[in-house]
């Protein structure tokens, strides 16, 4: 009656969203201050103050045509601003012709995959990965190929090499990473590039790097290296959901490396897919907002303080967790092998809402999104302490 594939995927759908909805239910029962919801990367911080004035000015602008269709790539003036920003961030001269405004990073990734993939071609992703990548790839007949990362979640070059085949079309990287907060170093990107160049020569193929970078502005003590400098066949997808705390506005962009062979054809494909996938174009108001806010950002020091507060508190209690380099997630080792049981216990007995690591492709861990208020973190620590005593027998700290 309905799509067999979609119906079968319903049971595999986002564990993050499921936990988010459970959190909303529990808050109605216990109250907001008694539920410690770390389920979803929904920024607690507000967008820059400047946003309010810009929206007020826009609401009073009676110019004709403010809400009409525009080119599928987006307004030329917006793309010029984005290109200038990309040029500055990557230390290159990036032309606006290779920018396409999108409905967030998720929309951008779907557009790129639709533009690149033939049926049964492979896209490599690294576990743990963002939960929706598998579905995005399968949307267009692609095959997700999962490569396990190292114990500290870095890319294992040998493991990557073992998974590259003549059918490999793209490698999807996410740095800073969701769910681990890892930033891949320039040296690591260089190693990947050398491997891909060798494999392209061996197989006579083109392999593309798709860089999903919505957290690029949320980095702490480590610099996020330039993907454009590291790879010729590179495509960046970014959004302002995290850097400007605008996830509900669904605004982002695709930036295609001009060095890609037959890049005009790829750009035509991107614009075609942006239209025919039903996005048509990125929202007009959101595009104009970005033009005015391009030099703004959320306060990263606030996220750093929250990271240190939660990471420091948990590790002191005996939980094992790498300290994130960026983004706003902790990926914590479960005290027991089955993290779903641990997460269920934390939820039912202590009102702590986390996302099980199996949904991210790495069992035995759970994810905490610390883009919440400091009060939530502080008030949750006594509950985490009770959990630690329950599982570590009081031998923590």
Query: Can you write the helix and strand succession as a string?
Result: HHEHHEHEHEHEHEHEEHHHEHEEEH
Under the CATH scheme, which architecture of the largest domain would be assigned?
3-Layer(aba) Sandwich
Give the strand tally.
12
User: What's the end-to-end separation, in Å?
Assistant: 56 Å
Question: Strand sequence of the main sheet, in spatial order?
Answer: 2-8-7-6-5-3-4
User: Regarding CATH, which class of the largest domain?
Assistant: Alpha Beta
Number of domains: 2
Structural class: alpha/beta
> What would the principal axes of the Cα set say about the shape?
globular
Helix content: 40-55%
Name the average pLDDT: 93
CATH fold naming of the largest domain: Aspartate Aminotransferase, domain 2
**Spans where pLDDT lies below 50 across 5 or more residues:** none
| Proportion of residues in β-strands | 5-15%
Report the CATH superfamily of the largest domain. Type I PLP-dependent aspartate aminotransferase-like (Major domain)
Question: What value does the Rg take, in angstroms?
Answer: 21 Å
Number of helices: 14
Describe the largest sheet: 7 strands, mixed
Briefly characterize the structure.
The protein has helices at 4-9, 15-30, 50-59, 76-90, 104-116, 133-138, 157-163, 186-203, 227-230, 263-276, 284-293, 300-317, 339-350, 374-392, and strands spanning 36-37, 99-102, 122-127, 143-148, 168-174, 208-212, 234-239, 252-256, 329-333, 352-353, 355-356, 365-369. By secondary structure, the chain is α/β, with parallel strands linked by helices. It has two domains: 4-48 and 299-392, Aspartate Aminotransferase, domain 1; 69-293, Type I PLP-dependent aspartate aminotransferase-like (Major domain) (Aspartate Aminotransferase, domain 2, 3-Layer(aba) Sandwich).
């Amino acid at each position: 009656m309905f799509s067999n594939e979609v119906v079968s995927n319903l049971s595999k759908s986002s564990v993050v969203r499921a936990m988010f909805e459970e959190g909303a239910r529990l808050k109605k029962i216990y109250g907001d201050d008694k539920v410690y919801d770390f389920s979803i990367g929904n920024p607690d911080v507000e967008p820059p103050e400047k946003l309010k004035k810009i929206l007020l000015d826009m609401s009073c602008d009676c110019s004709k045509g403010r809400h009409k269709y525009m080119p599928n790539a987006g307004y030329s003036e917006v793309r010029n601003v984005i290109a200038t920003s990309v040029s500055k961030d990557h230390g290159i001269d990036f032309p606006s012709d290779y920018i396409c405004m999108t409905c967030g990073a998720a929309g951008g990734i779907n557009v790129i995959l639709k533009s690149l993939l033939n049926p049964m071609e492979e896209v490599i992703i690294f576990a743990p990965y963002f939960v929706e990548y598998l579905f995005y790839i399968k949307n267009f007949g692609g095959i997700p190929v999962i490569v396990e990362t190292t114990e500290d979640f870095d890319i294992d070059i040998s493991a990557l090499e073992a998974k590259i085949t003549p059918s490999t079309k793209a490698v999807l990287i996410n740095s800073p990473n969701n769910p681990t907060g890892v930033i891949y170093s320039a040296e690591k990107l260089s190693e990947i590039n050398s491997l891909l160049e060798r494999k392209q020569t061996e197989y006579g193929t083109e392999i593309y790097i798709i860089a999903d970078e919505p957290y690029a502005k949320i980095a702490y003590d480590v610099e996020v290296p330039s993907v454009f400098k590291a790879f010729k066949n590179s495509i960046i997808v970014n959004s302002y959901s995290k850097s400007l705390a605008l996830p509900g506005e669904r605004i982002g962009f695709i930036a295609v490396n001009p060095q890609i062979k037959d890049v005009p054809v790829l750009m035509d494909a991107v614009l075609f897919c942006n239209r025919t996938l039903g996005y048509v174009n990125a929202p007009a108001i959101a595009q104009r907002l970005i033009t005015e806010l391009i030099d703004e950002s959320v306060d990263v020091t606030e996220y750093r303080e929250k990271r240190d507060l939660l990471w420091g508190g948990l590790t002191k209690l005996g939980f094992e967790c790498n300290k994130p380099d960026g983004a706003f997630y902790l990926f914590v080792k479960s005290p027991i092998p089955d993290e779903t049981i641990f997460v269920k216990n934390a939820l039912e007995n202590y009102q702590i809402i986390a996302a099980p690591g199996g949904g991210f492709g790495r069992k035995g861990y759970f994810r905490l999104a610390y883009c919440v208020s400091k009060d939530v973190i502080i008030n949750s620590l006594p509950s985490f302490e009770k959990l630690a005593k329950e599982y570590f027998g009081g031998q923590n700290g």
